[in-house]
Every structure is written in C-alpha cells, then in structure tokens.
Amino acid sequence: MTTPFKQQTVLITGASRGIGAAVAQRFAAVGMNIVIHYNQGHEAANEVARSCMQQGSKVLTISADIRSKEQLLKMQEKLAKHEMLPDILVNNAGISHYGMLADVTEEQWDDLMNVNLKGTFFTSQIFMERMVQLKYGRIINVSSIWGISGASCEVAYSTTKGGINAFTKALAKELAPSNVTVNAVAPGAVDTAMMNHLAAEEVTAIQSEIPAGRFAMPDEIASLVYFLALPESSYITGQIISPNGGWLT
Questions:
Q1: What is the pTM of this model?
Q2: From the record, what ranges are coiled-coil (predicted)?
Q3: For residue range 22-66, what is the model confidence (pLDDT) as tens digits?
Q4: What is the helix (H) or strand (E) element at residue 38, kind and residue range?
Q5: Contact criterion met (CB below 8 Å) for 106 and 55
Q6: Structural domain boundaries in the chain
Q7: Which positions are annotated as active-site residues?
C-alpha cells in the first residue's frame, strides 16, 4: 500500500449520528477523506460532514439503503467517479429491536436480518474487491456485546450481531492472504439514541451492573475503530473486541 494513511479514504455506513458520526469525526481529526453514508438522515449527515470539513477533510455524503445491493452498486459508481473508493470500510449501519421473541413478527425479524446482516454482507462484498486488488484494506464491523453473550428481550438483535461476529472471523481468514484485515468492535452500552427506549430506572439498573459505572461515549468506541484501521494494526484480524467497561470479561 503506497497511499499514506492520512490520505486514505474511509467509508462509514450509518454515519449521520451516534457511533458512526463519532467515527467520522475521529478520522477527520487527522484529515482523512471521509464518506458519510446515511439512509434517511440527510440533514444530520450534512451536519456531520460540515464538522469533518472544518477539520480539513475531504468529505462526501451519500444516501443508500444497505438492504439493496442495487443501491449500493450505484453508490460504488458514485464513489469511483469522485475517486473516493474506500481503503477502510466501517460497517456501522444497523437497527435494534427490543421485545420478547414471542412478539417479534416475521417482518421485524426479516428487517433486522436485512439491515444488520445482509447490509454488512453487501457492503463488504462490494468494496473488498478493490482492497484485494491493492493488497491492502481494513474492514471494521460494529457489532454488540449481545452478539457475544445474548440478551433477553433482544433475541433477534443478538442473533444479527452474533452473525456479524461469525462473518468477521470467517472473512478475516479469507482475506488475510491479501493483507486485508477484518475485525469487529462489539460495544457494551453506549450513550446513543439507540438507548432512548430505556426508562431512567432501567438506565440506573444497567449502569449499576457495569464495573465502570457508566455507559461508553461514542468517541470512546470511535477511538478503537481508528486504532484497528491503522497500518501498524496489520497483525490484528478476525478479532471481536468488546469495549464494555468490564461488563463482560
């Protein structure tokens, strides 16, 4: 790989808010080229883009439904036209669902699988081809602590994240000969909008179970993603790393 790290391009899916936005801003802090993908959060994505550009990054925002391979292929064409194909892919886009498995509908189940699992499959398959050709690349999947341990009332969501963990381990072995690393970051509880369904007493109860005594901040997760993307992290692959404040050891 001849492109200096700070001149590389990173594509973050679901980057209009939360962890994805924090990841974009972390890479922008060193002036990298940033592709901010979003589905519907147009103004939020633009706000993240403005923040990144203020730090000196070249930024492109782009909308696509990651459930659609056709839309992602069009996104790939646009990125190629702008010379913004990623050296680093952060598969962050995802949705959650909270409720008893007995109440999960087939439509809800399919939507979780299509966004969280199929979306990761599509984006990885589409963008890893160039990485293999260049003999360099980073794929970093955002998973969850529940993909490791499972969570009551989040069976469907846990299933998708467990699938991402298995996908990560297997793809890492497949791409290692091409000098492309594949890892997953599986956070514990993070202070994002995804936690908004919790009542105040539920938040307090969860925090009391975490040895660190608090939720993670998105920028703490972003720092780990950034570390895994560094050239000197080239021997780390196939790993599921869970920053969770000691919640799961």
A1: 0.96
A2: none
A3: 999 999 999 999 999 999 999 999 999 999 999 999 999 999 999
A4: strand 33-38
A5: no
A6: 5-241
A7: 157
By DSSP bridging, strand 88-91 and strand 9-12 are: parallel
Judge contact between 15 and 38, C-beta under 8 A. yes
Q: What average pLDDT does the structure give for the chain?
A: 96
- AA identity, residue 82: H
CB 36 within 8 A of CB 10: no
User: Which helix or strand (DSSP H or E) is residue 34 part of?
Assistant: strand 33-38
Helix (H) / strand (E) element for 49: namely helix 42-54
Backbone angles phi, psi at 11, to 5 degrees: -105, 120
d(CA 74, CA 93): 18
Q: Where are the beta strands (DSSP E) in 25-178?
A: 33-38, 59-63, 88-91, 137-142
Backbone angles phi, psi at 133, to 5 degrees: -65, -40
| Cα 229-235-241 angle, rounded to 5 deg | 65
Which residue shows structure tokens 């699992």?
Answer: 117
Q: 134: which 2 tokens?
A: 């260049």
CA atoms within 13 A on the CB side of 101: 9
How would you class 63 by CB atoms within 10 Å of its CB: exposed for 0-12, middle for 13-18, buried for 19 or more?
Answer: middle
Tokens 């360099």 belong to which residue? 136
